[in-house]
Amino acid sequence: MAPLLCATSFPRHSRLHHLRFPLLLLLPSRSLRSAAPLATPGLDLTNPTYVVWGCNTGVGKTLVSAGLAASILSPCSTDPSAFLYLKPVQTGFPRDSDSRFVCRKVSALFRRHEGGSISGLLASHHVLNASRAAARELLGGRFEQPDEEEGGAASRGLCMYEETRIGVGEAKEGESKLVCKTLFGWKEEISPHLAVKREGMPVEDSSLRELLRRCLGLSLGGGGDDGGKKRIWRVIETAGGAASPGPSGTLQCDLYRPFRLPSILVGDGRLGGISATIAAYECLTSRGYDVAAIILEDHGLSNEVSLQSYLRSRLPVLVLPPIPGDPLNNLLDWFYESRQTFNSLQEIMLSAHIKRIQRLHDMPRKAGRLFWWPFTQHKLVPEKMVTVIDSRCGENFAIHKVLDDQEMIIPQFDACASWWTQGPDSTFQIELVKDIGYSAARYGHVMFPENVYEPALQCAELLLDGVGKGWASRTFFSDNGSTAVEIALKMAFRKYMSDHGIHADFHKLGPKGSCTELRVLALSGSYHGDTLGAMEAQAPSSYTSFIQQPWYSGRGLFLDPPECFISNEIWNLSLPDCLQSNHLKPEDTRFSSCAELFCPSRDTSAVAENYANYISKQLSDFAASSHSILVGALIIEPVIQGAGGMHLVDPLFQRILVRECQSRKIPVIFDEVFSGFWRLGRESAAELLGCQPDVACYGKLMTGGVVPLAVTLATESVFEAFQGDSKLLALLHGHSYSAHPVGCASAAKAIQWFKDPNTNANFDIERKMLKELWDVKFVHGLSSLPAVQRVVVLGTLLAVELKANGCDTGYASLYTSSLVQQLRDDGLYIRPLGNVIYLMIKETKFLLMPKFGERLCSGAVNAVEV
Predict the structure, then answer these.
(1) What distance in Å separates the CA atoms of residue 634 and residue 636, rounded to the nearest whole number?
(2) What gap in Å lies between CA 183 and CA 131, rounded to an integer?
């Protein structure tokens, strides 16, 4: 029967029962380039869901899909099943249609055994979108030229539906279902990205993924009319090889990575197939895919033996009998001969699925029993509160949750940037993996002292030409921020001793005969790490209490700093009691914008004079109090105090503090472990202050957040303070993995990526800074909420302090617990600092930030008001 053409408003995804003929619906395509929602709904993995990949085109992916479907939908099965086959991208359409092949071939296999079947089969084939050329080929003379206003001349929403019912008459209770869908089709049998260029119908990655996600969410009757007995299988078949381009040009292994579905790899049994199969396998695993099995056609070369040797029993390799070469062969006998292999594949896939789900369920319980989480009171974290992270893709976690008895993998935005380390989007994540893998393969790990190798040298060159440009000449590698601070203290103290004649080979005695003791000048609310020396260099806090560190004494002069914030849409300057002055006017503590805070013209203001007098007096009084206890270094977190509560210290105060110390030959340390590498909108927070340190510490985002690495940069004069004829005068500090090649390679890639406008759309190359990320109206709206005490926004950071009193304030506060849980349920992974909630957006995602702001605004505002 000829196809039925409908020019009605019939719903595109309606199901028509008992059709023995294909139904075609032609609708204008209007949404192929619509942006996906910010927080994409999750994937239901209650039932087995797999992607079938090929090591190349023509290796039999569609035969494997059909054979697997036939095995699952066996007519001899007592339990009905459902099988969803999805072909996101099809070229050569309509002459070649993999979804049509699967539908018709499985139907033919089912019909062949219809006499002995226990259950029936409802098989359907759908095509959702096709290029104009493909639609014309399909419809011939019935094709109508589309209007430019109705979707353009390049594409049509082609909803073709073909349905067949086999066996059991009209009864549906014991009926299995096969649903086959092609999402996008082009006429020419070429790579999809070329088909788009020649035929039109461009499809953005986000649009393709969103349509695919919606198709995966289709209900096929599992747990419904069949009393929950029907198991649903979902299989996505890719086009070409694992690294073949999709419609946009993005490699398919990257295109589908946000789903990270388990995989079946169809290998190649022909000459050259071993290499092609291994390359495809490594392509997938290097991107985080789990491959459950490899299956390939037997060409008499025993390729499976070499593959099993390479895989070292990590996964099974299945072999299919040779495929008949006769084009007239309907392959039904071949499928029958292959049934045991497909049954084995089905068992492997089901077993892997069950083990994965069981492991996800076991993880929270085992974590609570085996882990000792940092900065966590375990009694406050019941098992149900543990977040199970299945993977990460760019800025999102993929977390496991059970919702309404469904096993869900849900994206959750990493709003705290995993303790301030993260910056990559999904594209950059893959690029980092490539460089890290290359470095690990080339070097493994090699010793650093007295040696040089390319990753370390390149990283040092980039650091000194970046965050250290204009002042630093030496790079000292370490492993994390605390260690970098310990090293910085040793550097600064030695420099102070050198400048002030305190020789390294003996103790200079004070007038009372006591040994000289060096201390730091630092700010209250500071945090420089959890190692002993770093803790001594910070003011008393929750982190340094006796119960946390009985050895802590606080070896420093700690000043209370002024801070800036937004309240009721106005930037305010809050002065501690020690800086209050009758000479200051109200306008001295109000600012029209954040930029005004950093304006150099403030250096001549009354506030600046007040700061200078206070700092000078504090240093003079301290020096007069003891001739043996000296301030040997200034250490500050430039601009933002992170762990202390996300306080924005008045940059004018810190600038004057630096100048006063440098005038007294007190070395200056900038702890930029948090603030460095664009976190605050500039490559270095020193640019915001308008002054330079003698020593600076960097970490976290320096490597793109994938592997740990830290550095301490220093001026040449600091380095010279360690020069001498004895090794005992050298800097005796280090660790086993100093300048490890993997970390250095990752850092080199990240440093270049973030300040390349071709890879970071948010980088303003003319001003050498990030573009504005946060919507001003959104920020002002938050600052005006009755429940909000203050808002700080700078670069990628947004911090909100909620109004609270007594024990509800400070680091130990649980005041934000309910809000945090609401935001996590909303798709935002928040980790608060007491009653302070903060978010960090990704530097390379400026184009998505307006929608992110709207999403955050509606979520956070509603939660706060509750």
Answers:
(1) 7
(2) 11
Match 């220093």 to its residue by tokens.
714
The 3-state secondary structure of 673-707 reads CCCCCCCCCCCCHHHHHCCCCCEEEECHHHHCCCC
Reported for 547-551, long-range contacts at CB under 8 A and 24+ positions apart, including other chains, are: none
Structure tokens at 204: 């953005």
For residue 846 the two structure tokens come to: 């400026």
Q: What are phi and psi of 364, to 5 degrees?
A: -60, -45
Residue owning tokens 């995966």 = 216
Domains of the chain: 44-356 (3.40.50.300), 447-763 (3.40.640.10), 772-865 (3.90.1150.10)
| H or E stretch covering 409 | strand 406-414
- Triad 583, 585, 590: Cα angle to 5°: 140
Locus of tokens 């030959």: 665
Question: Which has the closest alpha carbon to 236: 92, 420, 98, 130?
Answer: 98
Element (H, E) at 493: helix 481-499
Q: Are 71 and 48 in contact (CB under 8 A)?
A: no
Cα separation, 487 vs 502, in Å, equals 19
Q: Give strand pairing partners of 25.
A: 6, 159
CA distance 267 to 283: 13
Residue 366 belongs to what H/E stretch? Answer: helix 339-370
Tens digit of each residue's pLDDT (9 = 90 or more) over 263-281: 999 999 999 999 999 999 9
Cα separation of 524 and 557, whole Å?
9
Instruction: State the Cα–Cα distance between residues 428 and 750, nearest whole angstrom.
Output: 8
Of 251, 310, 240, which Cα lies nearest the Cα of 282?
310
And the tokens for 791? 């808002």
Q: Kindly compute the dihedral angle of the four CA atoms of residues 579, 580, 585, 586, in this order, to the nearest 10 degrees.
A: 100
d(CA 771, CA 752): 17
Q: How far is 213 from 398, CA to CA, in rounded Å?
A: 14
Q: What's the CA dihedral at 826, 831, 836, 842 to 10 degrees?
A: -80
pLDDT tens-digit profile of 460-504? Answer: 999 999 999 999 999 999 999 999 999 999 999 999 999 999 875
Which of 344, 481, 483 minimizes the C-alpha distance to 421?
Answer: 481
Residue 474: in which H helix or E strand, if any?
Answer: strand 474-478
Q: How many CB atoms within 10 Å of residue 795?
A: 24
- 3-state secondary structure labels for all residues of 603-650: HHCHHHHHHHHHHHHHHHHHHHHCCCEEEEEEEECCCEECCCCCEEEC
Radius of gyration of the chain (CA): 32
Work out the average pLDDT over 561-573.
97
Q: Which residue has the higher pLDDT, 821 or 1?
A: 821
Number of H helices, E strands in the chain: 24, 33
Using 50, 70 and 90 to split pLDDT, how confident is the model at 116?
low
263-266 and 291-297 as β-strands: parallel, antiparallel, unpaired? parallel
| Under 8 Å between Cβ of 75 and 119 | yes
